[in-house]
Design brief:
Length: 110
């Protein structure tokens, strides 16, 4: 979609530090990491949020890719986060799953 920063990264129009890619999914390092490992996993297709993710196959692929990324990068303990909606902290309205790792993570989050 025009003006979507994550579509531009997916289309390689702007550089992202890509750590994983397959036909439907791309993953890259967060520009403002909140942990030593902070990866964003997105479908290449523009989908605004989890509320619009009606494609079961793609939903499964997102989680499959998390497993593959963590295996590939030897990430053992990690947190996955999907912020949905402004109040929940969603700032980019192209669905993305955060992978956070490399330091102790507190629970519950703020
Ligand atoms: P949200 O708050 O929407 O769940 O997460 C958006 C994330 O995208 C934030 O962690 C932010 O640092 C990251 N981000 C925003 N713009 C860019 C960008 O241009 N490149 C990369 N790699 N990450 C970005
Ligand atoms: Zn997009």
């Amino acid at each position: 979609m025009d003006n979507c920063i994550f579509c531009k990264i997916a289309n390689k129009e702007i550089p992202g530090n890509i750590v994983y890619e397959n036909e439907d999914i791309i993953a890259f390092n967060d520009i403002n990491p909140q942990a030593p490992v902070h990866i964003l996993v997105i479908p290449k297709k523009h989908i605004e949020s989890l509320n619009e993710l009606a494609d079961k196959n793609l939903a499964g692929e997102l989680l499959d890719s998390v497993r593959e990324i963590c295996k590939k990068l030897n990430i053992k303990d990690y947190r996955t986060v999907i912020n949905t909606g402004k109040e929940a902290g969603q700032e980019v309205f192209h669905i993305h799953l955060h992978i956070l790792s490399g330091r102790p993570l507190k629970w519950p989050p703020g």
